[in-house]
Design brief:
Number of domains of chain A: 1
Helix content of chain A: under 10%
CATH architecture of the largest domain in chain B: 2-Layer Sandwich
Mean pLDDT of chain A: 92
Mean pLDDT of chain B: 94
Radius of gyration of chain A: 11 Å
Distance between the termini of chain B: 51 Å
Largest sheet of chain A: 4 strands, antiparallel
CATH architecture of chain A: Beta Barrel
Number of strands of chain B: 22
CATH topology of the largest domain in chain B: D-amino Acid Aminotransferase, Chain A, domain 1
Low-confidence stretches of chain A: none
Order of helices and strands of chain A: EEEEEEEE
Largest interface: A-B, 20 and 22 residues
Number of strands of chain A: 8
Oligomer: heterodimer
CATH topology of chain A: OB fold (Dihydrolipoamide Acetyltransferase, E2P)
Structural class of chain A: mainly beta
């Protein structure tokens, strides 16, 4: 069952740490957002494979926006 | 004294430095990014220069833009404030090369203290106690295990390239070390492209106590007493005060002596802060040195009655330190609360937006340092500090009461702020008793 990974805050994508097809564990950072000088990881909610990445480094994302899909 | 000072910063600290300049009849230059065009610090200065787009890397972190702005306006000195370029030794060197006085220490002192490994080594060599730990990055779990035998448990694994707590883990038993090390390395590699880790003793419930030091170019070094800054989240301070409540006299004497020794060892000049962790037994360890004016400098000003920023300008202009050690007395108590655009109900996540309403308290013993006004945009690009609230009292109890009243009167709408959290701190029996340590916030002591 694919699962959407959403940004939990508004910020700028500082790093895309996962690559398409990567196997991730629950708690692994998929992207790192930068907001107000803080680096805030957006983590995989469960183990799975990264089947889609919807953002690029430097891009601004809004709270609730889908950043990646986990399958 | 200087003719004209450019402040390479924004927000409350830029305004604080302009105020000190005005006291000395020094002309002021503000810089601003595109999103800060209407910010309060811009109108506070005698003149203002645009330095680039919103993202800090293209404006407030651009050495070239700052130096160009200083030259174009004919400034003869630059004050870096805190954050941004304040601890960038290349900026200090670039100012010197352009014939501008950098209001702060030498590039060498900034570089030495900015490299946390080197700073530890230099301080240990000068006889300043440091937290037991690995002298450098540890690559292999076997090396970590060997070190752990000396350091003891619990210990802390930290990413060398780290930040934001990523790749940080507390290990309580030897049996858990190899698994924790592997996880921390994988996370650090993923986040920073660098899996190097440090291992050090984890101190249970330590206090963060720091000492304000000040030195001139003629070799005089003094301290301006201590500040207690244990109320923190993610290693960022939320509440600071001076004096540190209940700190034994011998611990204080040891801390201030170590701070002066440390500053002297690196030939430090201007204002700086030596940060320490103090454990339950009163033993203390050097954490790091901040080679700049500290956010929380007002609490020191309130208890000593001295103006640190004016002294920074004087010392940078070549004057001797304006005070001898025995003249620097601490009287009463002062507390600072940092009002951040962060949501304490969501783990202090940033809360950007626009301030729609702002009503700040006033009264006896209350001082406000604000970088915002009603209508101000709070951008994702910068530090979320909006306002610093400072309360002074004849004793700590009066300072706490004044702060609690000031926080109750404080109205900020449009963004979430730390105000509700700060109100709970001031009303909490453990805080009121002065029984504080650095892990209180993460342990949820002040949760609603």
């Amino acid at each position: 069952m694919p699962e959407e990974i959403k940004a939990h805050i508004t910020g700028v994508v500082f790093l895309v740490t996962a690559k398409l097809g990567d196997a991730v564990q629950a708690g692994d950072p998929v992207i790192v957002l930068e907001s107000m000088k803080m680096e805030i990881p957006v983590e995989a909610p469960r183990a799975g494979y990264v089947s889609e990445i919807r953002v690029q480094e430097g891009q601004t994302v809004q709270e609730g926006e889908i950043v990646a899909i986990l399958s | 004294m200087f003719r004209k000072v450019l402040v390479a910063n924004r927000g409350e600290i830029a305004r604080r430095v302009f105020r000190a300049c005005r006291r000395l009849d020094v002309k002021t230059v503000a810089v601003y990014s595109e999103v800060d065009r209407d910010a309060p610090h811009v109108t506070d200065a005698d003149e203002a220069v645009p330095i680039g787009p919103g993202p800090a890397r293209q404006s407030y972190l651009s050495i070239e833009a700052m130096v160009t702005a200083a030259r174009r306006t004919g400034a003869d000195a630059v004050h870096p404030g805190y954050g941004f370029l304040a601890e960038n030794w290349q900026f200090a060197a670039a100012c010197a090369k352009a014939g501008l006085t950098f209001i702060g220490p030498s590039p060498e002192a900034i570089r030495t203290m900015g490299d946390k490994t080197e700073a530890r080594l230099v301080m240990a060599a000068a006889g300043v106690p440091v937290v037991p730990g690995s002298p450098g990055p540890v690559a292999e779990v076997v090396a970590a295990e060997r070190l752990a035998a000396d350091i003891g448990f619990p210990l802390l694994i930290k990413a060398a390239a780290g930040g934001g707590g990523i790749g940080m883990a507390r290990v309580t038993r030897a049996g858990d070390l190899s698994a924790a090390f592997a996880t921390a390395r994988r996370r650090a590699e993923a986040a920073f492209g660098n899996g190097a880790l440090y291992v050090e003793r984890y101190l249970e419930r330590p206090r963060h106590v720091e000492v304000q030091v000040f030195a001139d170019a003629r070799g005089a070094v003094v301290h301006l007493h201590e500040r207690e800054c244990s109320i923190q989240r993610r290693h960022q301070k939320l509440v600071e005060e001076s004096p540190a409540p209940g700190l034994p006299a011998e611990t204080k004497a040891g801390l201030t002596a170590a701070a002066v020794t440390g500053a002297r060892a690196i030939g430090y000049v201007n204002a700086g802060t030596m940060e320490f962790l103090v454990d339950a037994t009163g033993r203390f360890y050097f954490l790091e040195m901040n080679t700049r004016l500290q956010v929380e400098h007002p609490v020191t000003e309130e208890v000593t009655g001295l103006d640190l920023v004016v002294a920074q300008l004087r010392v940078a202009a070549g004057e001797p330190l304006p005070w001898r050690q025995e003249e620097i007395l601490s009287r009463g108590a002062a507390i600072e609360c940092r009002i951040y655009a962060e949501d304490p109900a969501k783990g202090f996540l940033p809360s950007p937006g626009t301030i729609t309403r702002l009503a700040l308290p006033a009264g006896e013993g209350i001082r406000i340092e604000s970088g915002v006004a009603a209508g101000s945009a709070v951008s994702v690009h910068y530090d979320p500090l909006l306002v610093k609230l400072i309360a002074r009292g004849e004793g700590r109890k009066q300072a706490v009461e004044r702060m609690a009243k000031a926080l109750a009167e404080c109205v900020i709408e449009g963004v979430q702020t730390t105000v509700p959290f700060l109100r709970r701190v001031m009303g909490h029996p453990e805080y009121c008793r002065g029984a504080v340590h650095t892990q209180m916030v993460e342990q949820g002591v002040f949760d609603a």
